[in-house]
Amino acid sequence: MARASRRDLLKEYRRLRREIQSRLRDFAQLSKNATEPELFAELAFCLLTPQTSARRCDSAVKDLVRTRLLFRGGVAEIARVLHRQVRFHNHKARYIVEARTLLTEGARLRVRSRFAENPAEAREWLVTHVSGLGDKEATHFLRNIGGSGELAILDRHILRNMVEYGALSRMPASLTPRTYRIVERKFQEFAAELGIPPAALDLLLWSQGTGEIFK
After folding, report:
1. What pTM was estimated for this model as a whole?
2. N or C, which terminus of the chain has less Cβ within 10 Å?
3. Any idea which residues carry the catalytic annotation?
């Protein structure tokens, strides 16, 4: 089977560049201007994303914010809200409560101050300390608050498109930390070859898999 054309991918990037750049500016502004609760809501969103669509996760987080359960609810209360939209709702409710406890100091959320500004170090801190976050979810969170740098969000849409465009020979059977780093380097090389920033390439490939530029 013939591989998809990188020339066509670049053409699609030119078509979507303004929308992609606008979305990345939104992420950067969140990093600068968001309140601590808003940053925590973004972390909760990323905790919910495994095996659940981004739109459903976003809707669930909005429900939790609206009811204030995200900031004061217990595991059972949060799970009841998640049950309607999110897979593995009991586990993910526990992850949210544990993350909230971890990131609370003196009865106030302290998200910004708890990990390094260096993207790779920040991801390592998140993966080590926040239950439910792997490399993909931690990178997703950092990207959504404008701090992922050259790191890659290797979800199924990105991996499939990397194979389609010849940047990856085949879908990995699993993404261990070592495999994640190997594939991430291939993603970075692919971005460099195309002349597209990694965060922009992620949104471009994700939009090809989902039909939209979201987060």
Report:
1. 0.91
2. N
3. 136, 155
